[in-house]
Design a protein that fits this description.
Shape: globular
Number of helices: 7
CATH class of the largest domain: Mainly Alpha
CATH architecture of the largest domain: Orthogonal Bundle
Strand order of the largest sheet: 1-2
CATH topology of the largest domain: Arc Repressor Mutant, subunit A
């Protein structure tokens, strides 16, 4: 059997993580929250001592401006976040978690930690450090290609 390429392996891993989330206890107990909603909630909890804006979420999660805007609109509609205009710039809106999202945050964080343990089971600390460095390098390679306009060889 021929080995799969890195791109196909990453896609399969991503699909597996998504399937796991769809079957998770969190997904069953937390009404209408997607995996991406969970990532945003986790990011906001992790940075709750800092003012967070849409561009921060875009950067941290590698999302497009339009995708993030739609995501935050959905989350606002579901009562998970509020967007508050900033006095110094009407275009900026600070993203704030609602009490409803905070209730879910502990479950979401526990589920993410469980998934990470499942994914990294049997890896040494050195292997995990190297794996993370490889992911960072791949992301840098993609960013360089986009920045240079040389996305296709």
């Amino acid at each position: 059997m021929k080995d799969k390429g890195i791109l196909q392996s990453l896609r399969m891993l991503s699909s597996g993580i998504r399937r796991r989330y769809e079957r998770s206890e969190v997904k069953q107990k937390v009404d209408n929250i997607t995996g991406m909603h969970s990532w945003v909630i986790g990011f906001l909890i992790e940075h709750e001592d800092t003012d967070i804006y849409q561009r921060d979420i875009e950067s941290a999660l590698g999302l497009s401006r339009s995708g993030t805007s739609k995501l935050l609109a959905q989350m606002e509609q579901k009562g998970l976040v509020t967007r508050i205009r900033v006095a110094c710039d009407d275009r900026l809106k600070k993203i704030i978690l609602t009490d409803r999202a905070r209730v879910y945050s502990e479950r979401i964080q526990a589920d993410m930690e469980c998934t990470e343990r499942q994914l990294t089971k049997g890896f040494t600390e050195d292997e995990l450090t190297r794996l993370q460095a490889y992911f960072v390098r791949m992301l840098q390679n993609l960013d360089e290609a986009v920045s240079s306009g040389k996305e296709n060889p």
